[in-house]
C-alpha cells in the first residue's frame, strides 16, 4: 500500500510553512507500528476519510434556511451565497414535511412557519430562481416526503436544462429516526423502507452525485440522548438501511458510497471530537466486516454536522454565539465534511439575516483564521482523545449488541427500547440541571435581570393566504387528465413492485 503522504492529492494541497500535513508517532521519536491510527485516508479512517482533509479543501459551509414562501427563502439563499456560504440547506414547513398541501385544514397556522412551504413544481422553481443547480450543493431536510421533494428538485433542474448527472446534494430521507425522535412519519416502517431503497436505486442510476439519505443522529441528540447513544442509534439505523437495500436486491458497493450521515455537535468539546472519530472507525468496520463491502468508498463515513439547537438559550441569547463557535470547532476537529452553524437567536425565532451572517462568519473564522485546518486530525495521539475515542466506541458497541439481541433496529424501535433509552438520558440531564450539577450559563448560573432586546424574525401572516391562493390557481389551470394519468402511473408502478422513481419525476414536471 502506498504511503498516503506521497499521494497526488496531498502534493496539490494547501501548505503552511513549518506545519506538516500529518503528524504521527514518528514526529515524537516513536515507532510507526499502527497505521490505522497514524494515517488519515486509510481504513478504519479514525483520522479522517481523506489523506489531505482540509489541507486540500475546507468543509462545505452550509446554512440551514427556509421561511414563509419560496420567494422569501430564495432571498435568504442569495444573501447567504453572497456572503460566502458554499452549500444550501433547505428547511421545509411542517405541512410540507408530512405531505399536506397548504390549504389542508390541519395546515392552518403552520404554513411557512418553521420552513418554506412547497406545494408544487412552481414553488420549487421560485425557491431556486436564479441559482445554478449544477454549481451548488443542496441539502434538503425532508423525510417522509423526501421522494416528492427530490422529484420536484430534479424536475426543476430538467426544466432549466441542467445535466442531472451533475446535480449534487442530499435528501435526509431517514424515516427510522422519525419514529424514534421526531414523529413526522406517514407510512408504516416496511413501506417507508421500500421507498428509501427505491430512492437508492433511482439515485444511483439517474443522479449519481446525489446522496439519497442522510442518516441522522442529530434529532436523537436534540431529544436528549448521550454521545455514545447518538453514535450507536445512528449507526444502528444505518445498518438497517443497508440490510433493507441488500434484501431488495441491491449490491452493497453500488449504493453504500452515497450513504451520508448527520450528527450533532454538542457542548462537551473533547467528547464531541472523539465521538466523530469513533463513529467513523465503527462504520468502516461494520461495512467491511459485517456487510462485506469491497470498495474503500463504501467503508467511509461521510457526515454533515449541525451545532446543537437544544443548547441555545433564550436568556442572554448573544452568549449562544460562543456556544456555537465551540461546537463548530469540535465538528471541524472531528473531521466533518459539511457544517451548519445555528443563529444565536434561534431559541426565540427563525434566525434574522444578521444572526445567519454571524453564524456563517463563525465557520469562516475557524476555516481561514484559526489554523486548525492546517494539519489533519491535530488531536490524534492525545492520551485523552484516544481514550475517549476508544471508550465511546466500546459504549456504542454495547448498545449495538443489545439492539442485535432484540432483533435489529426496527424491532428495537417497535419495542420502544431506543426511545426509552433516550428519554432516560434526557431526564437524567434535566435532573442534573435542576440540581445545579450541570451549569447552563445564564439559566441556572450567571443570570442577569435585563431582558433581551434581540430583534426577532417574524413571518408575515399574509404569506399563508398568498400561498393558498397560488395553490388554488394552479389546480384550476392544470390539465386534470394529464395530472390524473401521471398519478395513476406512479400508483401502478408502486403496486407492481416496480421502482416508480422515473414516473415520479415525470409527473412532477
Q: Explain this structure to me?
A:
This protein has helices at 8-11, 35-38, 70-82, 94-97, 121-127, 146-159, 176-182, 189-206, 218-222, 227-247, 252-255, 269-290, 296-299, 320-333, 353-368, 383-405, 409-414, 417-435, 462-477, 480-496, 501-508, and strands spanning 60-65, 87-91, 137-141, 168-171, 210-211, 213-216, 259-265, 303-307, 338-340. The radius of gyration is 23 Å and the shape is globular. The protein is built from 21 helices and 9 strands. Residues 1-13 have low confidence and may be disordered. Helix 10 packs parallel to helix 12 (269-290). Helix 6 links the parallel strand 3 and strand 4. The chain has 509 residues and is an alpha/beta fold.
Nutshell version of this structure?
The protein has 509 residues and is of the alpha/beta class.
Which features would summarize this protein structure in a list?
509 residues, alpha/beta, TIM Barrel, nine-stranded parallel β-sheet, 21 helices, 48% helix, disordered N terminus
What portion of residues is helical?
40-55%
> By helix and strand content, what is the structural category?
alpha/beta
Summarize the helix and strand pattern as letters: HHEHEHHEHEHHEEHHHEHHEHEHHHHHHH
How far the N terminus sits from the C terminus, by CA atoms, comes to 48 Å
> Could you tell me the radius of gyration in angstroms?
23 Å
Enumerate the strands of the largest sheet in spatial order, edge to edge or round the barrel: 5-4-3-2-1-9-8-7-6
CATH class of the largest domain: Alpha Beta
Mean pLDDT: 92
Named CATH topology of the largest domain: TIM Barrel
Beta percentage is 5-15%
Count of the domains: 2
**From the coordinates shown, what is the CATH architecture of the largest domain?**
Alpha-Beta Barrel
Shape: globular
Low-confidence stretches: 1-13
Number of strands: 9
Helix segment tally = 21
